[in-house]
C-alpha cells in the first residue's frame, strides 16, 4: 500500500469531472490496490472521506469511514443520489482545503445507489454526517468543492489564507 499525494485548492485538477468506473474493472488488482491506497491515505490524513479526484485519479469513486475507530470502511463506486429529503447545515472541512471549516447546507437524508468493492449494486439510505459526507465526496467527482457554496469574497479569503500557510510551511 502507499500514501497518495492529496491535491489542494486551488489546484485546477480538482475541477476535473471524473469518468465512470468500468464495472468489469472493479475486481481487478489495479483497482483494488487503488482503493486500498485511498483508505490508507484517508486514515493517515486523518479524514473521514476521500474522493479519487483528490488524489488525481479521475474516476467516479470514493472511500468513506465516519466511525470513530476506523471500523466502517465504505467504498462507493459510480455513486448516484436517487432521492433526497430535508435540509441540514453541517460544518465541513476537506483534506484538499486544510484548516478551513464552514457551514454548508445539504440534504439531510438521501438514498445513494452505487457499486460496492465487489462490484455489486447497492442502495443505501443515509442521514446526518454520512449523508453530508457522501454529498461532499460526490461533489469532488463533479469537480466541485465546499468553498464553492461560500460567497466569492469568502472564497478569496480562503485562497489567500491557504497561500499564506503554504508560504510559512515552505
Ligand atoms: Ni473534500
TrEMBL record:
<feature type="binding site">
    <location>
        <position position="94"/>
    </location>
    <ligand>
        <name>Fe cation</name>
    </ligand>
</feature>
<dbReference type="Pfam" id="PF01327">
    <property type="entry name" value="Pep_deformylase"/>
</dbReference>
<dbReference type="GO" id="GO:0046872">
    <property type="term" value="F:metal ion binding"/>
</dbReference>
<keyword id="KW-0378">Hydrolase</keyword>
<keyword id="KW-0479">Metal-binding</keyword>
<feature type="binding site">
    <location>
        <position position="136"/>
    </location>
    <ligand>
        <name>Fe cation</name>
    </ligand>
</feature>
<comment type="function">
    <text>Removes the formyl group from the N-terminal Met of newly synthesized proteins. Requires at least a dipeptide for an efficient rate of reaction. N-terminal L-methionine is a prerequisite for activity but the enzyme has broad specificity at other positions.</text>
</comment>
<dbReference type="GO" id="GO:0006412">
    <property type="term" value="P:translation"/>
</dbReference>
<keyword id="KW-0408">Iron</keyword>
<dbReference type="GO" id="GO:0042586">
    <property type="term" value="F:peptide deformylase activity"/>
</dbReference>
<feature type="binding site">
    <location>
        <position position="140"/>
    </location>
    <ligand>
        <name>Fe cation</name>
    </ligand>
</feature>
<comment type="similarity">
    <text>Belongs to the polypeptide deformylase family.</text>
</comment>
<feature type="active site">
    <location>
        <position position="137"/>
    </location>
</feature>
<dbReference type="InterPro" id="IPR036821">
    <property type="entry name" value="Peptide_deformylase_sf"/>
</dbReference>
<dbReference type="InterPro" id="IPR023635">
    <property type="entry name" value="Peptide_deformylase"/>
</dbReference>
<keyword id="KW-0648">Protein biosynthesis</keyword>
<protein>
    <recommendedName>
        <fullName>Peptide deformylase</fullName>
        <ecNumber>3.5.1.88</ecNumber>
    </recommendedName>
</protein>
Amino acid at each position: 500500500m502507499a500514501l497518495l499525494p492529496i491535491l489542494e485548492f486551488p489546484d485546477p485538477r480538482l475541477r476535473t469531472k471524473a469518468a465512470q468506473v468500468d464495472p468489469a474493472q472493479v475486481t481487478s488488482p489495479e483497482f483494488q490496490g487503488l482503493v486500498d491506497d485511498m483508505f490508507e491515505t484517508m486514515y493517515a490524513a486523518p479524514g473521514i472521506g476521500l474522493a479519487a479526484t483528490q488524489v488525481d485519479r479521475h474516476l467516479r469513486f470514493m472511500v468513506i469511514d465516519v466511525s470513530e475507530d476506523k471500523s466502517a470502511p465504505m467504498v462507493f463506486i459510480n455513486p448516484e443520489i436517487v432521492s433526497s429529503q430535508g435540509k441540514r447545515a453541517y460544518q465541513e472541512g476537506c483534506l484538499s482545503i486544510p484548516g478551513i471549516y464552514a457551514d454548508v447546507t445539504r440534504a439531510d437524508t438521501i438514498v445513494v445507489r452505487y457499486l460496492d468493492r465487489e462490484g455489486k449494486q447497492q442502495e443505501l439510505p443515509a442521514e446526518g454526517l454520512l449523508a453530508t459526507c457522501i454529498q461532499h465526496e460526490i461533489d469532488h467527482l463533479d469537480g466541485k468543492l465546499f468553498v464553492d457554496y461560500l460567497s466569492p469574497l469568502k472564497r478569496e479569503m480562503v485562497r489567500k489564507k491557504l497561500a499564506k500557510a503554504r508560504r510559512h510551511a515552505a
